[in-house]
Amino acid sequence: MKIDIPKISPVLTEKRFTDIFFEEDPLLEMCEITGAEFTNEVVERVRIYDAVIKNCQFNQTDFENIELTDVRFENCDLSNVNLTKSSIHRVEFIHCKLVGCEFPESSIGNVRFDDSTLNLAAFGNAKLEKVIFNESVLTNVDFYNCKFKKIEFNRCDLNEANFEQTTLKGIDISSSSFETLTVSLESLKGCKVSSYQAIQFASLIGLVVKE
């Protein structure tokens, strides 16, 4: 699946993340931010456009209602960051840590999570369209009541992920691994799985598969 990649300017201005505290309208655009430590802060309705953010720490920060467009995060720690009701479009998370990150009620489109860790992340009631999870760890991730459209899970760890009230029709999880999932039989209709996974699902619903 092809997705739209971030449209990032070839020349960016170096800025500090703390600069947004001095603006009435917290906006960062056409910039590169490296090595920032912006933890345990509360900044609502931040807008970040056309930016590269590298080697930064945002642990425990509240970015509710943030708007991210054309942004690439590299080697950043966003553990336990609040991104509730956010708008995230044409964004890449590369080698990032998003443990416990919260995305409820967000709009997420043309986004790629590459070689990232999303254990315990929460996407409840979010809309995801054209999103690729590539070689990422998503154990105990909560996708409760999400709207999926053109989603890929490529060689991911999905163990104990929750897909309750989320239809997986047309979603291919055959290259990913798990021991158990929370998902209803109704939601599984049309999901693409490997033959081994089919046996796993059979055992989860109490069937005994004879060889």
UniProtKB/TrEMBL annotation:
SUPFAM superfamilies: Pentapeptide repeat-like. It comes from the Bacteria. InterPro entries: 5peptide_repeat (IPR001646), PA_immunity-related (IPR052949). Transmembrane segments: none annotated. This is Pentapeptide repeats (8 copies). It comes from Oceanobacillus oncorhynchi. The lineage of its organism: Bacteria, Bacillati, Bacillota, Bacilli, Bacillales.
